[in-house]
Automatic annotation (TrEMBL):
This is Solute carrier family 2, facilitated glucose transporter member 5. The chain crosses the membrane at residues 63-83, 95-115, 121-143, 155-174, 186-204, 271-294, 306-325, 334-359, 365-388, 400-423, 429-448. InterPro entries: GLUT, MFS_dom, MFS_sugar_transport-like, MFS_trans_sf, Sugar/inositol_transpt, Sugar_transporter_CS. GO terms for molecular function: D-glucose transmembrane transporter activity; fructose transmembrane transporter activity. GO terms for biological process: D-glucose import; dehydroascorbic acid transport; fructose import across plasma membrane. GO terms for cellular component: sarcolemma. Belongs to the major facilitator superfamily. Sugar transporter (TC 2.A.1.1) family. Glucose transporter subfamily. It is a multi-pass membrane protein. Residues 15-454 form the Major facilitator superfamily (MFS) profile domain. Its main location: membrane. The lineage of its organism: Eukaryota, Metazoa, Chordata, Craniata, Vertebrata. It comes from the Eukaryota. Keywords: Cell membrane, Membrane, Signal, Sugar transport, Transmembrane, Transmembrane helix, Transport.
Amino acid sequence: MASKESRLTATLLTSILAAVLGSLQIGYHTGNVNAPAKIIEEFFNHTWRARHNESMPEHSLTLLWSLSVSIKDFGALLGSLGVKYLADSHGRRNSILIVNCLSMVGACLMAASKVCQSFEVLILGRLVFGLFCGLVMSLNPLYIQEVSPTNLRGAFATLNQVSFASGILLGMVAGLETVLGTEHNWAMMLSLSLIPAFAQYLVLPFCPESPRYLLINRGEEDKAEAALQRLRGSADKVITELDEMKEEAAHTQTGVTIQEFFKKHRYKQPIIIVLIINLGSQLSGFNAIINYSTRMFQAKFDEAKYLTLGVGAVNVTFTLVAFFLMERAGRRKLLLTGFISIAVCTLLMTIVDSVLHLVPELRSLQVLLVFCLISAYELGPGPISWFIAAELFDQPGRPIAMAFTSMLNWGGKFVLALIFPPLLKVCGAYVYLLFMTVALLAFTFTWIRLPETRGRTFDDIAEEFRGAEGIPLNNKTGFNTFT
């Protein structure tokens, strides 16, 4: 098939790199609040003292800081609700450009909070930025998957996670006291995400819209062909891919409502798969490790902040490993490897934490296990959970599926941020056994139900689910997809 031999073109690479500037911003604001937390808490206290001539009560300060951190995830949950409307009404590329303004407004509010002497402005900025997070982490994979050729689709979708992980590392570095995480510079640190936001406005408008959106959603074949010509650079590949899209369009209806999405039989299996993979990914412990890594290490190491940087570096390294393996090993193998590795790591972390007070020398092993868990997450569950829905659903259902993915991911992060501290107090080291159980359940379900999507057209994958009504199907690796 000609489309399988598609090569990387300058336009395709530029389009993808311009799109993932959004996830870079999200990663940056995920990583930059960890190290300078005490300095920003002091700003909250100073603002309160200036208004009320007394210090803020300790419990109120802790609650306010927790709200400041978690409000981004709550905003992302709300933002997810707008994915379908924007993607179908304005197109994939244009929607990314529209929501980028939310990032800029949020960053400006966060940076202005110090000048305004108002922690409410900072919290509002985090909320607005959260809306951007929920929208763009669905719109990016949607756009990338639809502009990429079949043989590069998974690898390029993984670049969204590479950019996110790189943003986390940049945020961690910027937040260090020796860089910008100081009393004088923290507001400027929060404004630096404006740089990639401006860069996206300079580049993405000149990149093509999704050809699938133009042909299947809008019926504009000439524009779709022109976009494909720019993305592929070969007339033969354009003709072949257009024929594939027309064949897919013949099997799909023009639009699907949210109610129809959850009622249609052909969507039931993909919905369950997306639900399990995303919840398995988010509730298997990774986000708890990222959010509380500095505190975990502080109890055992003097240079905890720099060990946290190691967490960020490992995070980036293994998203790059996933990028290179995605089209070689496939989604299924990487997910299975990731989930079983997470289960082993969390079991070992339970054992090490339980005996750490008896054998303090094991603290280095604990750090190694944290790094291994992060590696396992980014090898498969991390990147794949964000884009697998775009491969499992047909064109009408894809925007709703991506909104569903975003809600599950951000909802999982939000829930874990709320329940991990009290669970840690109640369960101690045994809290990791809960994460192990989640990872094992996700592994088992993936083994039984998930078909391999590598190297298959969207219509080929959709056909498997259209035929799923009581019929045992086999994927290309020989495992039963449905039983």
